[in-house]
Amino acid sequence: MRKTILIPGGAGYVGSHTAYLLAKKGHAVIIVDKRIHNQKFSPSWATIIQEDFSNKTILDQIFTTHKIDAVMHFAAFIEVGESVKHPKRFYHNNVVKTLTLLDRMLAHDVKNFIFSSSCAVYGEPVTVPMDESNPFRPLSPYGKNKLIVEFALQDYATAYNLDSVSLRYFNAAGALPEAGLGEQHDPETHIIPLMIRAIKNQTPFKIFGTDYDTPDGSCIRDYIHVLDIAQAHVLALEHLDHKHSESSKASAFNLGSGNGFSVKEMIGAMEKICDKKMVIKHENRRPGDPAILLANPAKASSVLGWKPTHSDLETILRSALTFAETFSPDPVYSYSTSSADRAHR
Ligand code: UFG
């Protein structure tokens, strides 16, 4: 059934891919995103409202004008290091504004919510791979922001019958160049775009830490294709259609492939695809980086029926490369504000 989905942060990395997939599946998509500086982000498949996602007047207008079936919320500041330096900004944007969004939803009786959460809610894993029973010990304000919203969603489910799904992403990666979509942050801190930049320009790629307790000493991460994450949102939407028990009204799922690659393995894979060597610089550990983050995605598989189909490493890297070669430095969406201001997912 065709639904109308409101997508705060739908011009960002994960949000834009999800909005695109929803539109392709026939849903009506309304994106609210303040930071669409680049006029090129005007896709024919979405209605775009260039506003802050917590603007009450705008939200009331949207909820009055449209029958919104669900809200998928991607708008957030994401840089973990920045969150340590500027927690006030992060709590305000990621927590306070999200609570405002939830208030307006409830005021208009909109009761389906899908939330971009993160494996950062766990901190250092107790068991590897990590399932949803890992204790919550977030290492950063960013991880705490996500957890606070998840706790609010549990309480709102009980008190106000708000149905929600929180999707805890591991390392979102890859692109959909055929739709002009891909990963582009400013400043860029993520491994794949930085590897591409380093190999193209023959500038040094910095490995943050080679003394971790892992087989080759570098950090291991679970890279999950952004299109597989988008597909999980589509399934979460279907999940919200089903009547479920009180205890599962606010559910949460880990989204990872279950395969881990070290930083050194990532470098090797990229060099192989490009048939070119990278200039490597060994750096100290980056603060806040756990040695291993690896998902056990069994719950998403059994409950949502989710199965990643684009997340083999070669597909991830090739799609990111094609996006960078085709669109960089002029992708369909790009932001030019300061790093902390423009950290939509
Ligand atoms: N890395 C390098 N060199 C670089 C960039 C990254 O060695 O130039 C390493 C990092 O130390 C890390 C791995 O590559 O071990 C992946 O780093 P990213 O910056 O690409 O991703 P993160 O794992 O730091 O961040 C992701 C999400 C965050 C989320 C976090 C949870 O992007 O939003 O996982 O830990 F909070």
Q: Can you offer a commentary on this structure?
A:
The chain is α/β, with parallel strands linked by helices. The chain folds into 2 domains: 4-172 and 223-255, 3-Layer(aba) Sandwich (Rossmann fold), CATH 3.40.50; 174-221 and 257-333, Alpha-Beta Complex (UDP-galactose 4-epimerase, domain 1), CATH 3.90.25. It is built from 10 helices and 14 strands. It has helices at 13-24, 56-65, 80-85, 87-107, 141-160, 191-201, 226-241, 263-274, 298-304, 313-327; strands spanning 4-8, 28-32, 47-49, 70-73, 112-118, 163-169, 171-173, 205-208, 220-221, 223-225, 250-255, 261-262, 280-283, 292-293. The strands form 4 sheets. The chain has a 7-stranded parallel sheet with strand order 3-2-1-4-5-6-11, with helices on both faces. Strands 12-9-14 form a 3-stranded mixed sheet. Helix 5 links the parallel strand 5 and strand 6. Helix 1 (13-24) crosses helix 7 and helix 2 (56-65) packs parallel to helix 4 (87-107). The longest helix is centred in the first third of the chain and has 21 residues, at 87-107. The two termini are 28 Å apart. Residues 330-345 have low confidence and may be disordered.
